[in-house]
Fold Pyridine nucleotide-disulfide oxidoreductase.
Amino acid sequence: MSRSDDAAGGTGASEVDVIVIGAGPAGEVVAGRCAEAGLSVTVIEHERVGGECSYWGCIPSKTLLRPGEVVAAARAVPGAAGAVGGVRAGVDAAAAFARRDEMVGGYSDEGQLPWLRERGVSVRRGAGRLVGERRVAVLAPDGGEQVLTATRAVVLATGTRATIPPVPGLAEADPWDNRSATGARAVPARLAVLGGGAVGAELAQAFRRLGSAEVTVVESGPRLLAREEPFAGDEVRAAFEAEGITVHTGRRAVAVRREAPGTPGGPGGPGTPRGPVVVTLDGDGGPEHVVADEILVAVGRTPATGELGLPVVGLPARGFVEVDDRMRATGVAGDWLYAVGDVNGRALLTHMGKYQARVAADAITGRLDPAGRPAADRADPGAVPRVTFTDPQVSAVGRTEAAARAAGLDVRAVTVPTASVAGSSVRGTDAVGTSQIVVDTARRVLVGATFVGHDTQEMVHAAAIAIVGAVPLEDLWHAVPSFPTVSEVWLRLLEAYGL
Ligand SMILES: Cc1cc2nc3c(=O)[nH]c(=O)nc-3n(C[C@H](O)[C@H](O)[C@H](O)COP(=O)(O)OP(=O)(O)OC[C@H]3O[C@@H](n4cnc5c(N)ncnc54)[C@H](O)[C@@H]3O)c2cc1C
Ligand SMILES: NC(=O)c1ccc[n+]([C@@H]2O[C@H](COP(=O)([O-])OP(=O)(O)OC[C@H]3O[C@@H](n4cnc5c(N)ncnc54)[C@H](O)[C@@H]3O)[C@@H](O)[C@H]2O)c1
């Protein structure tokens, strides 16, 4: 089988071992790992190799959060505080945007191609869609179409797009989604954010610290970060309110109006300023309207499956592609169709998509896992790590207390203040947050852990290892945390449990 690399525009082979549709983080990894195992692989991408994460997700959002985080951290350290102004005054938005541009490679995927090239993966530019069993049509940017055949497997890795809810007037108001927000070139004076999940919370704080005078988060559920422990959302809310971000929970936008959309080239003509947007809220307890200069929609994700031709193989035309633990699409016979990453809806996180990609590649190539077992997803749902990069951070892995009980586990949760250890105080005067472990009382092992606080992002992997390794509490007792680190919170938690 030929291994032509047509990333530069060649034609490539029409029959290969594996075809991957979508070259985001999940698609890249499944393609690379299959190729490393000696298979011929073509990956089809209609935008940029690297996907949402690289250009409009993880990377730009974390880059835009970072300046505000550093300035806030410095302000909490007597001796350093004088070197920076106020939390927002110290942030240079133009320089932050320039750094963002650098981190996204100037929105070019040139830097992402060598990794695939080195593995002999062929990249086809165009939109892929299923046209039969193991058959995929590629619609090239020039309108040409070619049908490719996979002798072994087709892997769907097309990810998701921002969901725009059917709120009257919202679409006409030309709202921001994660792409426009992470790609912003100016800071709106007033920003309204619909949705208080990870996207909404991170970007609300990023823009407040980049200089937005008013940021208002409207969340329909009872709290921010609903997937996490309730105390996490409450503590992030308290931090938001302390720095002037308004949070409305239990409220929905029922109408949106923008007098003059005024986008460059739009109804108001090139360069016309956009008029303010007025968001009408339902529910009680707060204002009826929020007025802002931009409105960011962050209410969840819609799988990019509508154009994939799924009915051809007997699957519903839209929605997430359901998979088994080997990442095979359920309901499709013959073990040839796989789905990895956001598109299967299991865990919408880059690292989990890449883990699923390794599982799928090994399932396709027949490689056993390091323990000699057939490749399978053994992390989800019990050991999914996640970090929300707000300040304070919410770093968690495994099940929340409620999710553990819902899964039928008999658990006991203990909490301690993250600030109860010297490492937190040495870091600064602003220590906040709660840390918690959720313990399976029958096995005396961790099934969940959450650390809210500063610099907790690096603590979560220790908890992941404790959960995946099913380390008994009695053994964890001998894992001595260094002094003075924030990790000493582990010791406080074990003591709180009664050890
Ligand atoms: C603002 C924001 C911040 C985030 N921050 C984090 C974070 O900090 N950490 C984290 O773990 N996750 C984060 N995420 C989630 C993360 O971005 C996704 O989980 C991840 O990008 C999913 O990877 P994927 O490969 O499954 O899909 P995607 O990254 O969406 O890639 C799919 C690719 O498929 C292509 N494609 C789609 N349809 C077709 C087609 N028919 N033919 C050819 N190509 C096609 C697309 O162009 C795209 O390149 C964030 C998301 C957002 C929106
Ligand atoms: N740091 C990270 O790892 C990170 C950062 C960003 C995104 N992500 C991933 O991206 C995924 C998508 O994030 P997201 O924040 O878009 O979705 P989400 O599902 O996490 O949160 C969306 C929120 O919007 C609320 N909502 C829904 N409809 C609403 C409406 N009409 N009005 C007001 N609120 C409404 C929901 O109650 C929910 O709390 C997440 O699942 C997460 O895994 C991860």
